[in-house]
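Lab notebook, page 48
Experiment: co-folding of the full assembly
Goal: obtain a model of how the components sit together before planning crosslinking
Operator: M.T.
Materials (sequences as entered):
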Amino acid sequence: MRARRNWPALTGFGLGLLAVIGYFALIVRHQPALTRFLELPVFNLALIALGLVLSYIGLRGAWAKVQRFRGRVVAALLGALNLTLATTFCIYLFILTNNLPVAANAPAVGTRAPVFTLPDETGRATQLVSQPGRKTLLVFYRGFW
Amino acid sequence: MAELQGLQLNEGEFARRNTDIIAVSVDPVATNAEAVRDLGAAFHILSDPEMKVIDTYGLRHREGHEGEDVARPASFLIDDDGVVIWRNLAESIRVRPRPEDILAVIDGQRG
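Observation: model returned without errors.
Model output:
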């Protein structure tokens, strides 16, 4: 008799893949509409968790039932891939994107913002100047548009 | 990029509060011209490839982008005396201050 496909193992890996691809293809690309999920992708993390549970169920199933050797290899391989994917994604999310240097010398609240002149997008020299009744929101960003 | 898009979407709200938005990055003028066009930005993006201003503000992120130095994300709200009245030093490149939160800060400063 042919061994039945190990659906939990397959689905588990599929969910993990879907969650990670979905993060970059959907959430990262649809900004600022999905800012909340860029900051904390709760649905993707939930899918990953569910996928890992299914991988575990698949792995247990492959060992518990009388199955061909191949079934165990496939379940173990998919489980390992899923775990690696989940770990890499979490490292990216919680470590790699959080490694910004401290800005100990940045102007503090209550201190004067250093004045400067820089070229704008047309090349025109633009100065940070204070004008009566007007505030300035100065935003530094990473660039590499 | 998402951050600047969010600011552009709220540009009218900042204008109503007499607040000018100025963005700064290491990108050259030509790249910023493209960015302003792509965004339809009503504000200016300034170019600091030598990181003079970025260093003055203590914001250099060494090898922050594929081995190149960039500015770490940071925002400062400056009043008409040139004094910083609010700032946000992002802790993650994924998490930036939300425009509505900055607007609330400006509203809180009034009166």
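Interpretation: The longest helix of chain A spans residues 69-94.
Next step: discuss with group before ordering constructs.
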